[in-house]
Amino acid sequence: MLYREAGQFKTSYVADSAIFPLRQDRIGIGLIILAAYALAFIGNSFLLQAVMIPFLVFSLASIGLNILTGYTGLLSLGTGAFMGVGAYACYKLMTAFPEVNVIVWIFVSGFFSAAIGALFGLPSLRIKGFYLAVATLAAQFFLQWCFIRIPWLVNYNVSGALDAPLRTLFGIPIVGATATPQTRYLVVLTIVILLTWLASNLVHGRIGRMWIAIRDMDLAAELMGIRPLQTKLLAFAVSSYYCGVAGALLVFLWYGGAEYDVFNINQSFFILFMVIIGGLGSLIGSFFGAALIFILPIVLGIVLPAILSPFGISVGADVIEHLRFMIVGALIIFFLIVEPHGLARLWQIGKQKLLVWPFPY
Amino acid sequence: MSFRKFGLGLAVATLLAGTALPALAQDSVYVPLFTYRTGPFAGSGTPIADGMHDYLRMLNERDGGIGGVKLVLEECETGYDTKKGVECYESVKGKNPVIVNPWSTGITLPLIPRASVDKIPILSMAYGLSASARGDIFPWVFNPPATYWDGMSMIVKYIGEKEGGLEKLKGKKIGFLHLDAAFGKEPIPLLQEMAKDIGFEVALYPVAAQDMQNQSSQWLSVRRDRPDYMIMWGWGSMNGAAVKEAVRSGYPMDKFYSIWWPGEDDARAGGAGAKGFKMLNWHAVGANFPAIQDIQKHVVDKGLSKAPKDKVGELLYNRGIYNSLLIAEGIATAQKITGKKVVTGEDVRRGMENIKLDPARLKALGLEGFTDQLVLSCSDHNGHRAAFMQEWDGTKWVKISNPIEPMTDRVRGQLEAAAKDYAEKNAGWPKRTEACDKAS
């Protein structure tokens, strides 16, 4: 009824290949963006700092991995390390050139990550699937080793940790301890929206179709004139760029300081789960996945005691933690059984049903 | 799947998420405890969490809190994970905590710059950033009773005394088995400096975090190098694994020394062969103190604790008690200085700076002889207290030395350089604006 495409005519190729061909979708996305910005002014600091900022950061990293694994079909376990490269690069750049705005360095640090990613993507030309996963695992361990071993990366800091010096944008602190969650959130949100918009243009255009062709059948793609070397390396570079920016955001706009251990193998798996649960080859799935894997445990941590306490059951923080693990684990299995294509597929089915609602014939 | 059911479930979930958190009473002091009873470090974390909780709970049960004000205790599970620790911090921040104790160096680091902004003091007891011992640069961070540099100098001093003087260490070889992270690497510069001055040789054996439970390659190297002494800087499952490997490779246990983190369970891992293993410690082991007896009576016997009865008084349980003793003293001192009953984070920061745990005060608290005295000040947030050596006799820890004073002259240089370095690197690191209290 409300969600109908009847009467919306496309009169040009451009209109036909638009990312949101439906007017309702355009209005919807506009409303979501508006709501996201409004949240900065109505949300409390816990919601912004502990829920929304990490959610956006993980969404961005998931988009990065999704480009590689979902769109190009190359499995990677080095996401955590590529995020680390972005974070360390950003730290070096912003301490070496403090006069340049930190936003610039956050975007530039992604290129360092992209270069490292492309380097470790070279084996992908020869090997596929699990074997490639092992090769990227090597990247994970090697880069992590570098983070510990090369004191130059942390400016010979005795604690071996990254810290966030004060940096401002238009005179308002955005990095460092005095930056409020509100400003941090606005910066992260803007960066994530920009990069998501860029990603959606990439994957829906020529480059995205090349990636998808390589994913679906690389031999056929090669015969059609797609060069696997450039295409695969480009996927690695773009994917690592996103991960690198996400890593820089993670350290400087969320944690405000971190040890090398933040970028360990668990981080890589964490992002990979988000991509698989959210839906391989879907941008909105990256957001869904990040929400399910990251926000759901937080919600459970708040909701579970509230459910249990009226029954006179008071449980400790550790029991809640175990319950969180069990419930999230069970939900992951549940979703994978009912919808192996991830949450994004559920969303798609929902939209299709809505198109014909309320007369599904 | 059925979309109606899915939607219904979603609606119920959102509804439940909206239920508000219980409000806090006004005449109470909120003390969040960051603990980790889950994850790979739970073995060390659980007894500490029990000790921390039980001591403060005992004050609530026995005295009705501190100075007549009830403590609202809340545990937040971090799993020793920085991500969750930061989430914990954000979730407790709004409830006006008077102090936080992160119990992980990884969580402490992101919180250090926030402390002065949020006005919440941080107690990182003998871990965290060693440089934060400098109160003039880090007014909101406290890391008593000693830094890792102090600890290293004490171990070397003790070994030197056993040899008959520090200069007798010349030509000896000391092995350093450490966790390959900031925590384990911190004392290396000091050790190397001492090696150069005194003339002993240092062999480093780093253990990566993912290989903590598999140290066979390190111990193979130890067997080849035959160091005269071994010093260990480990945490969690690394300690137990190291003791086990040392026993297996036949390293003489009486020459194996550790910093203050192994517990009974770690030493037990080595079986009978672990006898002779030594570690630094700064507080008593055992339940033979009036205050701990009170914990038994008011908390454990009433089923208010998660600790099994026989774990009360074990090393890491008492470590937790010591941590809570500092929290309680910080609050009590803050009440004394300000005259207020319900104190805030700012008051407790002042309270921590004026902590004076002398033998008389310890006796009054029912912890006579539990630990050495500790006096903090405006400039000294650490105390640099002496620790003693204790030895594993196969079933329990036995104190074998008098308090060993740290080699202050050596440690100070490291400390000042590191603190200055931190403040310099963090351009715009705020100058201390908090006024100092006169020592009373």
Describe this structure in words.
The complex is a heterodimer of chains A (361) and B (440). Chain A is mainly alpha-helical and 361 residues long. Chain A has a domain at 21-264: ABC transporter involved in vitamin B12 uptake, BtuC (Orthogonal Bundle), CATH 1.10.3470. In chain A, 71% of the residues lie in helices and 3% in strands. Chain A contains 14 helices and 4 strands. The two termini of chain A are 13 Å apart. The model of chain A has no long low-confidence stretch (mean pLDDT 87). Chain B is of the alpha/beta class and 440 residues long. Chain B folds into 2 domains: 28-146 and 285-385 and 417-425, 3-Layer(aba) Sandwich (Rossmann fold); 148-279, Response regulator (Rossmann fold, 3-Layer(aba) Sandwich). In chain B, 43% of the residues lie in helices and 13% in strands. Chain B has 15 helices and 13 strands. Chain B has helices at residues 3-17, 42-63, 82-93, 105-118, 148-163, 182-185, 188-199, 216-225, 237-248, 264-268, 290-300, 315-338, 345-353, 359-364, 408-425; strands at residues 28-35, 70-77, 122-123, 141-142, 173-179, 201-207, 229-233, 256-258, 278-281, 356-357, 374-375, 388-392, 397-399. In chain B, the strands form 4 sheets. Chain B has a 7-stranded mixed sheet with strand order 6-5-7-8-9-12-13, with helices on both faces. Chain B has a two-stranded parallel sheet with strand order 1-2. The longest helix of chain B has 24 residues, at 315-338. Chain B is globular, with a radius of gyration of 22 Å. Mean pLDDT of chain B is 84; it is low at 13-25. Chains A and B meet through helix 3, strand 4, helix 12, helix 13 and helix 14 of A and helix 1, strand 2, helix 3, helix 4 and helix 15 of B. Chain B: This is ABC transporter substrate-binding protein. Chain B: Keywords: Signal. Chain B: Belongs to the leucine-binding protein family. Chain B: It comes from Microvirga arsenatis. Chain B: Residues 29-394 form the Leucine-binding protein domain.
